[in-house]
Specification:
8 helices; 7 strands; alpha/beta; about 45% helix; Rossmann fold
């Protein structure tokens, strides 16, 4: 992708799954990369797996003081942040009537409030740093097809991802032209954690619902992040890009 070499990239939730694949892809593109994750053991693991990684910064996105300290550390390590991949998130599978207040608050704290904390911290840095003449920073946020089409058993998760989509659009309007803001909405992605939850029969059943007949790989989601951060996507802002194998084209996510 054009323009990614030497870009300074910070990825939240970057020690596993989509975040780890995205870190690997940006390193392949010649970017400088730090990841932020609350799991210290996962952070140590990705540092071992990706020796070129700048650092795995341990912080919880639900705590604004930790976010600000982590961002300051990333700026110290890379002398700035050009691209933010705002990816940290959790989900809890429950029927709507069974979701507890504690579970609801936990999912919102990570998936929406945490996204806001990280996005605002990054945007303040980028808005001060960039002008129309100097180019733009890029903030890319992980939404989900669950924020576009209703999905049973994930009411709290769905609500947060719909919130991320609207947050993304509003940020794009307010931060243009200095900062571009987009969201990626993956459908079913076969991360190692997701695969561990499936029996072979369950995986086959879900794959049958997807027009392309399979889950996405984390590397495919990473590729879209790389494109949207690159100069090839310099006119892209304010939009949500679903990568779902055709899942939502016919409303299959809600079946």
């Amino acid at each position: 992708m054009r323009g990614l070499k030497d870009k300074r990239v910070l990825i939240t939730g970057g020690a596993s799954g989509i975040g780890a694949a995205t870190a690997a892809r940006f390193l392949e593109e010649g970017s400088r990369v730090c990841v932020l994750d609350r799991d210290a053991s996962a952070g140590a693991r990705i540092k071992h797996e990706l020796p070129a990684l700048g650092e795995a910064i341990i912080a919880d996105v639900t705590d604004l003081m930790q976010v600000e300290a982590a961002f300051a550390e990333a700026i110290r390590l890379m002398d700035g942040v050009d691209v933010l991949i705002n990816n940290a998130g959790i989900s809890i599978r429950h029927k709507f009537l069974d979701i507890t207040p504690e579970e609801w608050e936990r999912v919102l704290a990570t998936n929406l409030t945490g996204v806001f904390y990280v996005a605002q911290t990054a945007a303040r840095h980028m808005y001060e740093r960039y002008s129309e003449e100097r180019g733009s920073g890029v903030i890319l946020q992980t939404a989900s097809t669950n924020g576009i089409v209703g999905q049973p058993l994930y009411a709290d998760y769905n609500a947060t991802k719909a919130g991320v989509i609207e947050l993304t659009k509003t940020m794009a309007l307010e931060l243009a032209p200095r900062v571009r803001v987009c969201a990626v909405a993956p459908g079913y992605v076969l991360t190692p954690m997701q695969r561990a939850e499936y029996s072979d029969a369950m995986l086959e059943e879900v794959n049958r619902k997807i027009p392309l007949g399979r889950h996405a790989t984390p590397q495919e989601i990473a590729g879209l992040f790389a494109y949207l951060a690159s100069d090839d996507a310099a006119y892209a802002t304010g939009h949500v890009y679903a990568l779902d194998g055709g899942e939502t084209a016919g409303g299959l996510a809600s079946r």
